[in-house]
Design goal:
The protein has 170 residues and is mainly α.
Length: 170
């Protein structure tokens, strides 16, 4: 019985069944005069590999990918610089070889867009808008004293607009 290893159960046995099934061997071994050798210690668990060793392949993959990406970005910027320098070089060589009159370029003027005329907003809608703005300003939580002061000034102006008899046109 001492040569056998520990019994493995598929389900947890009750204490009464466990005590009856294991015979007491200490009394018989003491009668022989020689003590039985203690059971061997349980085998040591296998040492786990470190995180870096377990995922060494992925580390190499990420490192390679980063090098490839860096090379791509570097080459792309170098190619753009070469294209820009090639565009500039022919202009300089042509102007240096033959003296040409100065070319006056017309400055770019954006097209003039006429403002859209909209009907004026009624005063009651303007008051509602100012009240809504005031409510939103009250909800804001300032970060420092300067911001609080600015918000308080804006709220004071909104209150003046709301209380005024006539509102400025928007």
């Amino acid at each position: 019985m001492s040569d056998e290893g520990p019994k493995l159960f598929t389900s947890k046995p009750k204490k009464s069944k466990l005590k009856t099934s294991t015979p007491i061997t200490t009394a018989s071994s003491s009668s022989m005069g020689a003590a039985a050798p203690p059971p061997p210690p349980p085998p040591l668990p296998q040492p786990q590999d470190s995180f870096a060793r377990r995922y060494k392949f992925f580390g190499k993959l990420v490192l390679g990918f980063s090098f490839i990406t860096g090379a791509y970005v570097l080459l792309r910027t170098v190619m753009k610089d070469e294209e820009k320098s090639e565009e500039v070089k022919p202009d300089r060589s042509a102007s240096s070889s033959s003296v040409a009159p100065a070319i006056s370029e017309k400055p770019f003027t954006p097209p003039i867009v006429e403002p859209i005329q909209r009907p004026p907003i009624p005063e009651d809608q303007q008051r509602e808008l100012f009240k809504w703005l005031l409510e939103e300003k009250r909800k804001v939580r300032p970060k420092d004293a300067e911001e609080r002061k600015c918000i308080d000034e804006e709220k004071a102006i909104l209150k003046q607009f709301i209380r005024a008899k006539s509102l400025p046109s928007i």
